[in-house]
């Protein structure tokens, strides 16, 4: 019933709801193309096996960027840059990333792959600041672990529903 907790739960839920399925759609976009290697494509005309290493590269690029963003975010918080500013910056990376994917969907895999840098920045800032924000909300209440579990559950539910519902939408309506 605490408004700050509810706000963090909803913000995290919708961030992960919007974010989790983006990598799957990105992988599908990168898999489009000519399949000139003579392999049977299993009825998926226009798909390419190059998507497998591209998706792996996308994950690695996002994780490497996330590590750097976490280090950068930690230094910023120690220098007095507000947690809310970094948290908002992390949240803003998601709509920017999605807009770039839409704009670059026909520009080639390199452009699509580069959008994962924004995923790493957003994920790094979000992951770094989540426990700080919970600590701010629960200071002096003894409920840190309870609220961490509650917020993490909301985030996980958002990610799960994102993949389930997002793929249904792509299946029915396309990219």
Task: List its traits.
78% helix, globular, 175 residues
Put the structure in a nutshell.
The protein is mainly alpha-helical. The chain has helices at 3-19, 22-31, 51-78, 83-104, 109-114, 116-138, 144-173.
Describe this structure in words.
With 175 residues, this protein is mainly alpha-helical. The chain contains seven helices and no strands. Helix 1 packs antiparallel against helix 6, helix 1 runs parallel beside helix 7 and helix 3 packs across helix 6. The radius of gyration is 18 Å and the shape is globular. The N and C termini lie far apart (38 Å). About 6% of the residues have low confidence.
What oligomeric state do these chains adopt? single chain
Which stretches are poorly predicted, pLDDT < 50 over at least 5 residues? 34-44
Number of strands: 0
Radius of gyration: 18 Å
Tally of DSSP helical segments: 7
Structural category: mainly alpha
Please tell me what the overall shape is: globular
Average pLDDT: 87
Helix-strand topology string: HHHHHHH
For the record, give the distance between the C-alpha atoms at the N and C termini, rounded to a whole number: 38 Å
Strand content: under 5%
Q: Major beta sheet, specifics?
A: none
Q: What portion of residues is helical?
A: over 70%
């Amino acid at each position: 019933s605490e408004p700050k907790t509810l706000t963090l739960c909803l913000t995290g839920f919708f961030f992960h709801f919007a974010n989790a399925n983006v990598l799957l759609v990105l992988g599908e976009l990168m898999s489009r193309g000519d399949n000139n290697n003579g392999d049977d494509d299993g009825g998926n005309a226009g798909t390419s096996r190059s998507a497998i290493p591209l998706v792996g590269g996308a994950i690695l690029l996002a994780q490497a960027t996330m590590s750097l963003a976490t280090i950068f975010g930690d230094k910023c918080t120690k220098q007095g840059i507000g947690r809310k500013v970094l948290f908002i910056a992390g949240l803003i990376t998601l709509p920017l990333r999605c807009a770039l994917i839409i704009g670059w969907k026909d520009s080639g895999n390199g452009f699509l792959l580069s959008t994962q840098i924004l995923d790493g920045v957003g994920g790094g800032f979000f992951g770094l600041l989540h426990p700080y924000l919970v600590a701010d909300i629960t200071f002096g209440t003894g409920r840190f672990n309870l609220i961490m579990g509650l917020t993490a559950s909301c985030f996980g539910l958002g990610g799960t529903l994102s993949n389930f519902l997002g793929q249904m939408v792509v299946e029915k309506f396309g990219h």
